[in-house]
Amino acid sequence: MEKLYGVVINPVTDVRSEPKFKSERVHQLVFGEFVEILKEENDYVYASDIRLNYRGFINKHTLYLLTLEEYRELSRFEQVKISAPFCRTSGVISYMLPFGSRLYRDGDTFLLPDGRSYSLLDAPTVETKDVVEISLQFLGIPYLWGGTSSYGFDCSGFVNRLYDVLGIDIPRDANQQEEYLESAESPKSGDLLFMKGHVMLYMSENKVIHANGHHMCVSITDLEKEEYGRYLKSQVRKVGTIKSM
């Protein structure tokens, strides 16, 4: 049967603009995420991220290819999303799985798509469901263009992954997020502040947390007390609020 789907079997894999390893990284997928395969080209597949419908080229050696029936079968298992920064595995795989990874639970163990099982060395989830509290786990994580994992984030990949882990889907890129979210007159904790080409998560008391190219990491910026922060505040053109929080 034709392999129409794939599931990521590396801790993280790049989604690229062209089927070349030197082409631009436009997105990333993490362990356990599904794609629909649209075509194959040498070592790459052109695929659509099932969650976001985001398309690009993925090295097919980072995927386990699935028939429609295999995809449906794996999807039936209980899915656990990692909300800790990282989670170590043991057994047939020894990985440091990043934030947002999908684990498919089978009783006391977890399944790989080929049916083999593995176990965890760390708790995969944290107790809090507060997006700002979760975001603080990633202070100092490197800025990475196209990044969506705790190995490295870009600005929109950071907020997208935070809300993904909480079960709230928002678009991938900052301009799409800005268009998608409803406007608010003033920000509250968990809202998103948009300026041209950048998005920040509002905390409270005029502070934001964001993956940014100024500090080249996830950092907190005070929009009143720092020169950089005052510049950012002057450029904000929309406060986006997430109603389903």
**Count of individual beta strands:** 21
Mean pLDDT level: 96
CATH T-level fold name of the largest domain: SH3 type barrels
Main pleated sheet: 6 strands, antiparallel
CA radius of gyration is 18 Å
Q: Which homologous superfamily in CATH is the superfamily of the largest domain?
A: SH3 Domains
Name of the CATH first level of the largest domain: Mainly Beta
- Into which percentage range does the β-strand content fall? 35-45%
How many helices? The count is 5
Order of helices and strands: EEEEEEEHEEEEEEHEEHHEEEEEHE
Low-confidence stretches: none
> Structural class, from secondary structure content?
alpha+beta
Domain unit count: 2
Family: Belongs to the peptidase C40 family.
Protein name: NlpC/P60 family protein
Keywords: Hydrolase, Protease, Thiol protease
GO biological process, one term: proteolysis
Can you put this structure into words, describing what you see?
The protein has five helices and 21 strands. The protein is an alpha+beta fold and about 240 residues long. The mean pLDDT is about 95. The protein has two domains: about 5-120, SH3 type barrels (Roll); about 130-240, endopeptidase domain like (from Nostoc punctiforme) (endopeptidase fold (from Nostoc punctiforme)), CATH 3.90.1720.10. The strands form five sheets. A six-stranded antiparallel beta sheet has the order 8-11-12-13-9-10, with no helix packed on it. Strands 16-21-17-18-19-20 form a six-stranded antiparallel beta sheet, sandwiched between helices. Strands 6-5-4-1-7 form a five-stranded antiparallel beta sheet. Helices cover about 15% and strands about 40% of the residues. The protein is globular and about 55 Å long.
